[in-house]
TrEMBL record:
This is Cold-shock protein. InterPro entries: YdjO. It comes from the Bacteria. Pfam families: YdjO (PF14169).
Length: 66
């Protein structure tokens, strides 16, 4: 029997503003679009988070928070 991976289209990537954990031991980050505050604490370790950018897949228009 032959199994083949589906041909899925790759989503375009864009520079996205994110919050990044300042702790060297933690890899936590989140999109700013999904945050409610102007400053954040890391949900994984509780440390302060700072502004950053990442090259991420573009989300469909209906998934952004208004």
């Amino acid at each position: 029997m032959f199994y083949r991976k589906k041909n899925e289209e790759l989503l375009p990537k864009e520079q996205t503003e994110v919050w990044e954990c300042e702790s060297e031991d933690c890899i936590g980050w989140m999109r700013k679009d999904f945050s409610y505050e102007n400053h954040q604490n890391c949900p994984l370790c509780g440390h302060k988070m700072s502004d950053g950018e990442r090259l991420l897949e573009k989300l469909p228009p209906n998934s952004h928070r208004n």
